[in-house]
Amino acid sequence: MGLYLGLDSSTQSLSAMVIDTTEGRVLLDQSVNFGKALPEYASPSGFLAHEDPQIKHANPLMWVAALDLLLGNLKAAGTDFSKIEGISGAGQQHGSVYLAKRLDEVPAWDASQDLVSQVRPLLSRATSPIWMDSSTSAQCRAIADAVGGDARVVSISGSRAVERFTGPQIRAFYERDPQGYAETREVHLVSSFLASVLVGKTAPIDHGDGAGMNLLELASGTWSPELLTATAPGLAERLPPAVPSRTIVGELSGYFVRKYGFKAGTPVVAFTGDNPSSLVGMGATEPGTAVVSMGTSDTVFAAMRQPLTDPRGFGHVFGNPGGGFMCLICFANGSLAREKVAERTGLTWEAFERAILQETEPGNQGNWLLPFFIPEMTPKVLSPKVELFGNPQFTAWEQPAALARAIVEAQALSMQRHSDWIGEQPKVIRVTGGASRNRGIRQVLADVFGAEIRSLSVGNSSALGAALRAAEAVGSVPFPRLYEAFAATDDASSVTPRIGATEVYGDLRQKLVERLAALGA
Ligand code: ADP
Ligand code: XUL
To answer: Distance from the CA of 393 to the center of ligand 2, in angstroms?
Structure first.
């Protein structure tokens, strides 16, 4: 029992949460937003501008700068890090960091300098492709062809070769910049990279996040020689080991002890992906609880009884940090698409909520929207495609309330359709992420899924999951005990389907499917 720190490096921000497992309380929950706090990285939404909408990269030094900034802010505000018993963390999934040196071979960080100036010379690639990148269709095909087709990639790794996954991204780097690849000694995920920075040496990749690479053999939890060979030459030497999520990967580097006052030897538990971490933070590591997360991306995920795979090829199987497996379906057009609608209609989030709850009805009088403001992975729509359809009068961007409902209905219908393979329809869904604060959005989810929608009392489930994982692995506090204290649902936020609403969507679902089929998706 004691205090544990969880970090979450998501697309748009870095968060830190400290929990006290003796008192069952969250002591601290703070973030820095990359765009706002670090404008010098020119990434207002967490990634760099690029003329090709399929290319999405971020500067990995921005994530490192945020770590120094956030810990510095917390120390300045009087946080006493010497009481922390263990640390873990989470990162946006799939993104990769390329280093010209093995971190095991570099000298310890120097506490008289900042981290950025010490990490910068280690990079063999200045930018990191992130999960929003969809520029690797050719590499996905090549990898699948090399092992005998999509079905083989799915049976080894739990997913088809997909554009944002790390293997296809590594292959694209190897093809586009063979010199850069040759100079690369170590390839990390965002999660293992940040864990490595904390321990000052090479940190392994955990099974939760590692399964999002198209490189891990799910059955054994080790790198698949077949997929590694199909991806890029000499990849085995460049990957850290793959380990179970509860592995202690090292002690906190002296840099953090001297600079921020942590205890010498503070254990660091393997970092995982933000979604596997949220599975823990939502108290959902046992099968039976489905989660919808609406952060930058929207995701639907759940612990799995058996590792089923998605017959349509969009969903994934990842390692469950609580043991076994989880399924996940990801939608790129989550919050950023809702923000585009809010901007174009001039609606604040409060007005957006009112528009859904008070000014429009389920089915939206036939006003529908194809919501692909950026390339989408589920379903696969590689060029942005935004289209008003359904009601012939719904042709221009002049009906703000109808547009607010139209995007959320389209997103919820797509989530439901693309998660139908994971098992029986859930009766209760737990929601998290910035947009889950919006009651209008929760109501549409309830109506479309025909399920009760519940939020948890503690927000920021990915950072919470990281702190809980540290407590479980270092403090040996079992997850069920931690969930009693930290993963309780907030009854006041519960939303149930409106009478008759769910039936309205039967017809709409079919219309959306037809529209998507016409898109070739
Ligand atoms: P991430 O963890 O991916 O960085 P968050 O879970 O913090 O993202 O969610 C941030 C997003 O939540 C913002 O980009 C914003 O679009 C959205 N958001 C915040 N408040 C609301 C609200 N009241 N209604 C709808 N969306 C919201
Ligand atoms: C999941 C995915 C995103 C990222 C960013 O497969 O790509 O949810 O983890 O949050």
So the answer is: 36
Top mutation candidate among 9, 335, 436, 443 for ligand 1, by most atoms within 8 Å of CB: 335
Distance 502 CA to ligand 1 centre (A): 26
Whole-angstrom Cα distance, residue 137 to residue 382? 9
Domains in the chain: ranges and CATH:
3-270 (3.30.420.40), 283-456+488-521 (3.30.420.40)
Pocket residues: Cβ below 6 A from ligand 1: 10-13, 295-296, 335, 338-339, 349, 433-435, 437-438
Ligand having the closest approach to the CA of 326: 2
The answer to whether the CB of 188 falls within 8 A of the CB of 91 is no
How far does the centroid of ligand 2 lie from the alpha carbon of residue 521, in Å?
20
Query: How far, in Å, is the centroid of ligand 2 from the Cα of 93?
Result: 5
Two tokens at 496?
Answer: 């149930």
Cβ neighbours of 386 (radius 10 Å): 16
Gap between the Cα atoms of 389 and 515, Å rounded = 9
Ligand 2: residue whose CA is nearest its atom 1:
330
Ligand whose nearest atom lies closest to the CA of 352? 1
Q: Dump the DSSP string for 456-495.
A: BSS--HHHHHHHHHHHHHHH---HHHHHHHH--B-GGG-B
Whole-number Å distance, alpha carbon 166 to ligand 1 midpoint, is 25
Cα gap 458→490, rounded to integer Å? 9
Which residues are 25's β-sheet partners? 20
The two tokens of residue 344 are: 């174009």
Pocket of ligand 2 (CB under 6 A): 10-11, 92-94, 131, 164, 212, 273-275, 295-297, 299, 328, 330
Q: Are 330 and 379 in contact (CB under 8 A)?
A: no
List the chain pLDDT tens, one digit each, 521 residues. 799 999 999 999 999 999 999 999 999 999 999 999 999 999 999 999 999 999 999 999 999 999 999 999 999 999 999 999 999 999 999 999 999 999 999 999 999 999 999 999 999 999 999 999 999 999 999 999 999 999 999 999 999 999 999 999 999 999 999 999 999 999 999 999 999 999 999 999 999 999 999 999 999 999 999 999 999 999 999 999 999 999 999 999 999 999 999 999 999 999 999 999 999 999 999 999 999 999 999 999 999 988 889 999 999 999 999 999 999 999 999 999 999 999 999 999 999 999 999 999 999 999 999 999 999 999 999 899 999 988 899 988 899 999 999 999 999 999 999 999 998 788 999 999 999 999 999 999 999 999 999 999 888 999 999 999 999 999 999 999 999 999 999 999 999 999 999 899 987 888 887 887 777 65
Ligand nearest to the Cα of 93, by number: 2
